Give the backbone structure.
Amino acid sequence: MKQTFALTALFLGILMVGCSTKSSENKKEEKPLYEQVMDVHDEIMPSMGELNRLKRELKDKLANSTDLVEEKRMEMEATVSQIDSASRSMMVWMREFKPEDFKGDELQKYLEDEMKRIQQVKENMLKALEEGRKANQ
């Protein structure tokens, strides 16, 4: 009797763990679109500090290096501009992101559009980071 009870309890425990693991996996796949959009934002937002640092360093180099070849100077200025644009795009996106203004199907469409926008912001920021690191070597 005790063995049957113990085996039943063990079986039910394994079944519950298996179901809860499956349930957790499904929740990740079914994450609301709002959370997916915010995940992209949260992934790239910490890079703003590095972008600002790279911009500052490049501007310092431009100001303090009188012997820069014109081509190199133009490259560095273009990179500073690219960093400005990427930073500005994140700030604009954050200022304009207002999902609370929408409901139902309109909210779904809005979030789909915002996912595209934040993906573009992310791409711009990653390119600016890459160029900024390269120019700052």
Notes: Residues 25 and 31 are 10 Å apart (CA to CA). The first helix runs from residue 2 to 29.
